[in-house]
Write a structure and sequence with these properties.
The chain has helices at about 15-20, 40-50, 65-70, 70-90, 125-140, 160-170, 185-200, 205-210, 225-235, 270-275, 280-290; strands spanning about 1-5, 25, 55, 95-100, 140-145, 150, 170-175, 180, 185, 210-215, 220, 245-250. Helix 2 (about 40-50) packs parallel to helix 4 (about 70-90), helix 4 runs parallel beside helix 5 (about 125-140) and helix 9 (about 225-235) packs across helix 11. The protein is built from eleven helices and twelve strands. By secondary structure, the protein is α/β, with parallel strands linked by helices.
């Protein structure tokens, strides 16, 4: 099967490429070859390459940058997604599109399920919510996967930033009231592969399975608990300068864009539909820190 992978240099895309290359023909254009910010670029590429499946792991994910440049975030995270989905529909291709827990307002007292009311609190979340809607409206073979707190040592993320602080600071500070479902990029990539395998035929199978699903590390954690796990599990922790992590309210950390406080995800629907369940978040983070996948 010919698979078009968008975002091949990102956290998830860099893990997806080697997984799919073992069994499929993978097209993984660079940004210079396919710029999603350029109107019509995605449609033209899909029309030329005729993939059976498109995996869209590309996005503008810098939350603060999206707040500064909401038009660019909307262009990449929503308008380009509609172009991709429309092109997939025309080409009779299937689409897997990645979205985010930041579509939620963060006011829940339990993990969010797919049908819960959305209400993003920042430009990034609004653009990603618009992208979800576009993917599902424009292509009847779309599977949208919402994920949470994706982490990888390949690209800058919360874990890499906290490792640097643990190495250079006497005490590391982390929010003790911001909750999500930490997700190792390698675990999410394997889940995507397994969902595609479970669906089977990219035409009829994806049409039957189309919809919105949550896909994240099993369980929930605060930023503080995630940082404590890094301090406990990192193979080079003996060289860390910081011996402890101190919790602080998320409001005490100055950011350009507001963040939702609670965005843990309930992924039961994914397991019910495809038999796919991501490992506990602690296991994924431990493997990542150990250098494995």
């Amino acid at each position: 099967m010919r698979v078009l992978l968008l975002g091949q240099r990102g956290q998830v895309g860099s893990e997806l490429a080697p997984l799919f290359e073992t069994e499929h023909e993978v097209l993984a254009p660079t940004r210079s070859e396919l710029d999603l910010a350029a109107k019509g670029a995605a449609s033209a590429f899909i029309s030329r390459s005729r993939p059976a499946l498109v995996i869209n792991a590309a996005a503008m994910t810098d939350v603060d940058a999206a707040e500064r440049q909401p038009e660019l975030a909307e262009r990449i995270n929503a308008i380009a997604v509609r172009e991709i989905a429309e092109a997939c529909s025309t080409a009779e291709a299937a689409l897997v599109h990645l979205s985010t827990d930041f579509v939620f307002p963060g006011t829940s007292a339990r993990p969010y399920v797919e049908g819960d009311e959305t209400g993003p609190v920042n430009a990034y979340g609004r653009s990603k919510l618009a992208g979800e809607i576009a993917a599902l409206e424009a292509c009847e073979r779309s599977i949208v996967l919402r994920t949470s707190w994706v982490q990888s040592l390949r690209r800058p993320c919360f874990v890499t930033r906290m490792i640097e602080r643990l190495r250079t600071s006497d005490v590391a500070l982390a929010a003790d009231d911001q909750v999500g479902s930490p997700t190792a990029a390698a675990d999410l990539s394997r889940a995507i592969r397994d969902v595609v395998a479970a669906v089977g035929d990219p035409r009829d199978g994806f049409r039957r399975s189309a919809g919105l699903y949550h896909a994240a590390g099993d369980g929930a954690a605060t930023r503080l608990q995630l940082t404590e796990a890094i301090l406990r599990l990192h193979p080079e922790r003996a060289a860390f300068r910081a011996a402890s992590v101190v919790g602080r309210p998320a409001a005490s950390f100055v950011t350009e864009a507001p963040r939702p406080l609670y965005t843990a995800l309930d992924c039961g629907a994914l397991e019910q539909a495809f038999g796919v369940r991501l490992p506990p978040w602690q296991d994924g983070i431990a493997r990542m820190l150990a250098g494995g996948s």
